[in-house]
């Protein structure tokens, strides 16, 4: 999906959250990244292959 340079990390990369946002719904609390990952405001993620990444907030 990523068409800009430099290319964003793939959905399988450890730094996948660094991809650029292409759509966002602030009311529902999600962003679609250019690598196909949906990131939620609680830091959970939905990967393009359907896998779910549980929220991973840093505890202070």
Radius of gyration, rounded?
A: 11 Å
Q: Please bin the fraction of helical residues.
A: under 10%
In angstroms, what separates the terminal alpha carbons? Answer: 35 Å
Please provide the count of β strands.
5
The ordered H/E elements are EEEEE
Identify low-pLDDT runs: none
Shape: globular
Main structural class = mainly beta
Mean pLDDT: 90
Tell me the number of helical segments per DSSP (H or I, 4 or more residues long): 0
Description:
Helix content is 0%, strand content 27%. By secondary structure, it is an all-beta fold. Strands 1-2-3-4-5 form a five-stranded antiparallel beta sheet, with no helix packed on it.
Outline of the structure:
By secondary structure, the chain is mainly β. It has strands spanning 21-25, 30-33, 38-40, 45-46, 52-53.
Key phrases:
mainly beta; 60 residues; globular; 5-stranded antiparallel β-sheet; 5 strands
Task: Give the secondary structure arrangement, pairings included.
Elements: E1 21-25, E2 30-33, E3 38-40, E4 45-46, E5 52-53
Antiparallel strand pairs: 1-2, 2-3, 3-4, 4-5
């Amino acid at each position: 999906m990523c068409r800009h340079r430099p290319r964003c990390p793939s959905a399988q990369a450890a730094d996948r959250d660094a991809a650029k946002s292409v759509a966002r719904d602030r009311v529902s609390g999600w962003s679609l990244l250019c690598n196909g990952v949906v990131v939620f405001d609680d830091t959970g993620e939905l990967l393009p292959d359907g896998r779910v990444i549980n929220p991973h907030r840093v505890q202070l």
